[in-house]
Amino acid sequence: MHPRILSPLEERQIRAFLKQDGEKNLNMRVLASRARKNLPKIKEDLELLDRLLTTYENETKKGKA
User: Fold this and answer.
1) Splitting the chain (65 residues) into consecutive groups of 10 residues, what average pLDDT does each group show?
2) 1 three-class SS
3) Taking the mean position of all CA atoms in its chain, how far away is CA 63?
4) How many whole angstroms separate alpha carbon 32 and alpha carbon 54?
5) Residue 32 within any structural domain of the chain
6) Is residue 2 situated within a structural domain?
7) Rounded to an integer, what distance in angstroms lies between the CA atom of residue 23 and that of residue 20?
8) What is the pLDDT of residue 62?
9) What per-residue confidence (pLDDT) applies to 17?
10) Which of 6, 13, 15, 41 is the most buried (most CB within 10 A)?
């Protein structure tokens, strides 16, 4: 499992873009395109991880009771 979704460079580029007026340069167009393409799967994976942790924590609590 990867601990991050964005690389440090992508994160810096996005933060700079948001801080400025939002100039749509080539890097931002590529990042936006990748975000649109991959966001549904990322959300799906996050939901699965949330379900895992909820179930895991509930089972752990049941074992201690």
Assistant:
1) 94 92 88 96 97 92 72
2) coil
3) 32
4) 31
5) yes
6) no
7) 7
8) 79
9) 92
10) 13
The pLDDT of residue 60 is 80
Residue 1 lies in a domain: no
Q: Which two tokens stand for residue 46?
A: 């996050």
Domain membership of residue 40 as a residue range: 8-64
Tell which phi-psi region holds residue 22, choosing left (phi > 0), alpha (psi between -120 and 50) or beta: left
What pLDDT is recorded for position 65?
A: 56
| pTM, full prediction | 0.76
Number of domains in the chain: 1
DSSP string, 8-61: HHHHHHHHHHHHTT----HHHHHHHHHHHHHHHHHHHHHHHHHHHHHHHHHHHH
Contacts of 6 (CB under 8 A, 6+ apart): 14
Q: Is residue 50 part of a domain?
A: yes
